[in-house]
Amino acid sequence: MKITNDIRYIGVNDHEIDLFEGQYTVPNGMAYNSYVILDEKIAVMDTVDARFGEEWLANLKSELDGKTPDYLIVQHMEPDHSSNITRLMQAFPSATVVSSDRAFVMMKQFFGDDYADRRIVVKDGESLSLGKHTLTFVAAPMVHWPEVIVTYDSYDKVLFSADGFGKFGALDVDEDWACEARRYYFGIVGKYGAQTQKLLAKAKTLDIEIICPLHGPVLSENLGDYLNLYDIWSSYGVESEGVMIAYTSVYGNTKKAVLRLAEELRANGCPKVAIADLARDDMAESVEDSFRYGKLVLATTTYNGDIFPYMNTFLHALLERGYQNRTVALIENGSWAPVAAKKIKSMLEGSKNLTFTETTVTIRSAMNDENEAQLSALAKELC
Length: 383
Ligand code: FEO
Known about the structure:
Layout: E1 7-9, E2 12-14, E3 19-20, E4 24-25, E5 30-32, E6 35-38, E7 42-45, H1 53-64, E8 71-73, H2 79-82, H3 85-91, E9 96-99, H4 101-111, E10 119-121, E11 127-129, E12 134-139, E13 149-153, E14 158-160, H5 177-189, H6 193-204, E15 210-212, H7 223-234, E16 240-247, H8 253-267, E17 273-277, H9 283-292, E18 293-303, E19 306-307, H10 309-320, E20 326-333, H11 340-347, E21 354-363, H12 369-382
Parallel strand pairs: 7-8, 8-9, 9-10, 14-15, 16-17, 16-18, 18-20, 20-21
Antiparallel strand pairs: 1-6, 2-5, 3-4, 6-7, 11-12, 12-13, 13-14, 18-19
Helix pairs in contact: 5-9, 6-7, 8-12
MU-OXO-diiron binds near residues 78 and 215.
């Protein structure tokens, strides 16, 4: 697949995977992207997951048309991209690996070889000329591992963005970009907002016409829209007006209160109410929606003198990712000693810039008239 006259796509689609990175469901599969730049010198940009080595090498050879690659540029050492380094280095014994010093340490750890006599170690801002194309390497630590570099080709104005601007989903499935890119970002890179902001600041100084990520489609139109979303996500801004309600319910009584609140919110003109049953719905989707909207309602049961397990897991997922800048409301249920609201508040104590609503709803077993009035008051506060 041609990206520009000299840049070709040689990646693969994975429809076999059950859980990406051992935890994320990917109903539409996953793409591991790789590219080759054909110039006086030839550079291969990253490899693919271990299971697709043969297919990838065949894609590469077909684009090479008998030529030999001079460089393998390794931007990221996570095995979904690095697992075929050895395969390429064996197939092309004259090739040189180009990567960051930290990546070579990981190469040795993962694959037993750091190519001491066949490598170029690059630092932030250094360049490599292929002929017409000059590649400049930009350090992007923690987007998403510490060794990451991204690469700017000033000839075709292409940013090879590593995991940045990636998404879940194979490339032979047509689906909305933002939905799976947001779930991917908050799942995988979400903790590293500050580092992503730094990378965006560097990207702003470059004239970019095409973004070639390691997952998801090549982006070549409306780049401002994608950059803007990344700016909102990595600065923990609010992307959409609305309320996210995350709940757990053991016998359906907490759920009843949640559905009642949702009705009241809609009646009050709330533009969007997203609801997630944390025990049954995709956790990564619940996490992304919590960062997407500016208001979050947490409804749960007291359990073993603490918070119900799925809510506990969910809160840890938010906290790990630096949850902040939002309004939070609490609904707790407990038949004899409800403590969930107090426990949640103390868990969220260290989160920056959270505002708790005045109304906290305490249900004792099942919703009563007083709870209904509280839910109405809460809906008014939130909308
Ligand atoms: Fe797609 Fe962080 O690897």
